[in-house]
Every structure is written in C-alpha cells, then in structure tokens.
Design brief:
The chain has 248 residues and is of the alpha/beta class. It is built from 7 helices and 11 strands.
Length: 248
C-alpha cells in the first residue's frame, strides 16, 4: 500500500540548494529509490526520489561534501586545461579522433571537414572576442548537424539488430546525461556524444533502446544491454573518465 502511495505521489519541481560553499541542483524522479550525487563539468547534481525531503537531501550532500569539493576542484582543473580559444590550431574531438581547427576570413560563414582538418570560414568581426564567439557558434551548429545524422544512422542500425523500435528520437543539450527514454518510447541523445568514439555512441544508443523493454536499471535491464553490448562496462567507464572532454 505504501509503495502504491509513493508511486502515485506527485514528483516535486527541481530545486537548488546552497551548502558549504557550493551549489547543488536537485532532480526528483518517481522511479528513483535512493539518493545519488553526480559531479559533471564542475557542477553538482543530486538525483533524488520523489519522497525525499530537502532536509534529508541537504544532510546527504553535507555528508558527501569533502568528496564533492575534491571532484569539483579536479574537474575545474581539467576544464581549464581544455579551454579553447577558437582560433587556428585548436584541437577538437570528433567521433573519437582529434580535428585541427583552421579559421579563415570569408564573405560568408561555412564549415567543412577535410580529413582531420575542420575549416571554418567566417565573416570578419571587429574584435578577437567576437570572432571567437562566432567561430564557436558555427562549430557547435556543425556538430549538432552531424549528431542528427549520425544518431539517426546508428539508431536505425541498432533497431534492426535488437528488434526494438523507438517511436521517435531527437537531439538535445543535456548537462548531466547522455541520453533519455520516456514512457512513449521516445529517445533523446546529447549532441555532444558525437565527439566520443563510435563504440561509445553505439553503447548509449543500445542503452536507451533497452529502456523501452525495461524502464529501469534492473539486473534484467543490464542483461539485455549485455546481450547486444558485451563490453558495455568499458564504454560506460569511458564516459565517466572522459565525459568532461566532450565540451565545445
């Protein structure tokens, strides 16, 4: 009876708490049973069950505060090392390889790929800062277009192999997740994944497809994933270790 009441309980709106010198975003879920903390891009995300109180969450975060600070500091250093200036010579990840950025002035904006050279032709800007901003916007737009094409191809491939069919899919910008599946069997993928190796992208596609069969992370779910991705643990760990690099 209690389980049924909790299941039917309305999911609270997302919250933000400030504690011990850092900010943590809270995302509630009716499916979640335990509290977990993720640190991505130097930002803290608490994933909480719908029934968890803010007081309980604050105590949980406070208990983990030392680990959180270490993780935030470590990722801040990594982000600083990955800082891009959006000028010729910058290195950009794409499908697991590094592209070399070349910026050239032109009368119209255009982005093209030639081997490992990403050529960005852009109209002149009055300052270096505005030029960098324009180049970044062009590159991000190009990556999103490539992500749309690549995910459509890989999803179609894995739908044929698994026999599991999504009712639709799309590309989104997520802060702390690589993909999602809803109750309507609609899948969404983080466009930034197009920077990852193809095998890792395939793992995420299979991961979300399998949620259509098992809308959870139960042992049965992971066995289904393993049927199609025997090395899924390697790809999952790659995202944990390298996910911070997938930023533009």
């Amino acid at each position: 009876m209690l389980r049924k009441l909790l299941k039917n309980r309305a999911v609270p709106d997302n919250e933000t708490i400030h504690l011990n010198g850092f900010e943590a975003a809270i995302r509630f879920s009716a499916r979640r049973k335990t509290l977990t903390i993720k640190v991505a891009g130097g930002k803290v995300l608490v994933q909480a069950p719908a029934f968890a109180s803010l007081r309980e969450i604050a105590q949980f975060v406070d208990h983990k505060s030392h680990w959180i600070r270490e993780k935030v500091a470590q990722q801040a250093e990594q982000l600083e090392a990955l800082e891009r200036h959006w000028r010729s010579g910058d290195s950009l990840p794409f499908l697991g390889a590094d592209l070399c950025l070349r910026v050239e002035p032109a009368t119209r904006n255009q982005v093209s790929l030639d081997g490992h050279l990403l050529l960005v032709r852009t109209r002149g800007r009055p300052t270096a800062e505005s030029m960098a901003s324009a180049v970044q916007a062009q590159v991000q737009r190009w990556y999103k277009e490539r992500a749309v094409k690549h995910f459509a191809e890989r999803l179609a491939h894995w739908e044929r192999l698994t026999g599991i069919t999504a009712s639709g899919h799309g590309i989104k910008t997520y802060r702390a997740r690589w993909g999602s599946c809803n109750h309507r069997a609609e899948l969404s993928f983080n466009w930034k994944l197009v920077m990852a190796p193809p095998a890792v992208i395939d793992y995420v596609v299979v991961h979300e497809l399998c949620h259509i069969v098992h809308f959870n992370h139960s042992p049965q779910y992971w066995r289904l994933v393993e049927c199609f991705q025997p090395d899924y643990r390697i790809h999952k760990q790659w995202l944990r270790d390298n996910g911070l690099r997938l930023e533009l």
